[in-house]
Design a protein that fits this description.
The chain is α/β, with parallel strands linked by helices and 404 residues long. 49% of the residues lie in helices and 7% in strands. It binds iron/sulfur cluster (SF4) (2 copies). The site of one iron/sulfur cluster has 13 residues, from helix 3 and helix 7.
Length: 404
Amino acid sequence: MVTINPSFYSIRQLIELDACTRCGECRIWCPTFAEKPSLEAITPFKKIDSLRSFLRRQHGLLAKLMRRTALSPEELTTFAQGVYDCTLCARCYQVCPVGIEMRSLWIAMREQLVDLELHPPLMNRLRDTVTTHYNISGDPNENRLGWTANLASVPEGLDRKQNAEVVYFMGCVAAFYPMVYSVPQSLVALLSKAGVDYTTMGGDEYCCGFPLVIAGMGKHAREMMRHNIETVRSLGAKKLVAACPSCYHTWKHEYPHLIGEPLGFEVLHETEFLADLIAQGAFDLKPVEKKVTYHDPCDLGRTSGVYEEPRQIITAIPGVSFVEMKDHHEYALCCGGGGDVEMADAEVSAAVARRRLGQAQETGADFIITACQQCKRTLLGAARKEKVRIRTLDVSELLWESVQ
Ligand code: SF4
Ligand code: SF4
C-alpha cells in the first residue's frame, strides 16, 4: 500500500493544512489553473485538500482505531499532476488571506512524490544530467565561459581570478543557452565599464542546485551547493552577484541554511548591484528612445522582495518611456518558465507565457524588460512561436545600450 509519510512536512505545514478556509482566492490567481481549468487538482486549494485527506485516511484517529485506507492509483496520479503542473510562482501565497506558505509546501509535496516514485520521469533525466555534468544542459562544464567566444576581447581576470572583489555567478541558463548569451555579455561589459574588480568561477561554477530543489530532489544538490560555497570562499571574494533570480534566491536563502552559518560574503542580484553603481554615478547614461514594460521574475519579486531596483535602473535611462503591465509587483503574472513545469507540462508553460505576452502587448510597449535569463528565454521563445512583435531584453542589456 502506498503510504503518505507526514515526516516530509514541518509541524507548521501540517497545521497550515487545517488553516485553509477554502475561500478559493488562490484558485482565481493561479496562472496554471487558468490555462488548464479542467484539472481542479492544479489549484492550491485542491492540493491542500488532497494532502489533508490522504493524511487523515492514513494517520488520523479512525485510521489508528480501525485501519489505514488505501489511496487509489488514480487519485495519486491526479495529485502528482496537480503538484507538478505548477510554476512555483508563489502568487497563491501572495493572495492567501491566512498566509499559508505554499511554495515550500509544494516543494515538500514534490519531495514526497519523488520518494514514492510518482514524479514525472523527465525529472530523473534532469537529476542525472545535473549530478553528472554539474549543469542543466549536459554540456562539458568547463565550457561555462562559451559566451565570451564572440566578444571583441575577453575581460582580464574573468576566469577564477584570486581576491577579486566580486564573483559573478553566471547560472546554467546564461552559460549554456546561446539565445541569452547577450545577458552575461552585457553584464560583464557594464562591470568592466564601471571599473569593478570582478571574476567568475569559470568551470568551477556548478549548478546552484535550484532545479533539483524545486523538482523535489534537493538532497542530490547538496554536494554541488557546498562545492560552490567553498569555491567562492577560496577565491576570497567579498560579494557574489547573480543575474539569475533563482540562483540569487538559492544563494541568499538556501545556502546559509544548508551550512548553518553565514556565507562570509554578500549576495546580490545584478539589479541591486547595478542600481547602486548608477546611484554612485558610475555610468554616463545616454538616451534610449524605447517604450518598455517590466516583467517581475517570480524569484526576484515575490520570493526575494526585489521590486524597485530594476525599475530604478529602467527609469534612470533618459528617453525610456516606462509603463506597467496589468499585473505587476507582488501580483505579477509568471512567465510560465518556472517550477520545472516546462518539463512536466510544456503546453501549460507555453500558455502562461502567451498570456503574459498578451499583457505586455496591451501596454503598447515595444520591449519587455526583465531581470532573469530564464524569463527572457521563455518570453522570447513564446513571442517567436506566436509571431508576436515584441522583444524581450534583460535590464542589463537595456542599460548597456544606454552606456555603450
Ligand atoms: S505557485 Fe503559482 S502556479 Fe503554483 S499553485 Fe501557486 S499560483 Fe498556481
Ligand atoms: S487562498 Fe488560502 S485559505 Fe483560501 S483556499 Fe487558498 S489556501 Fe485556502
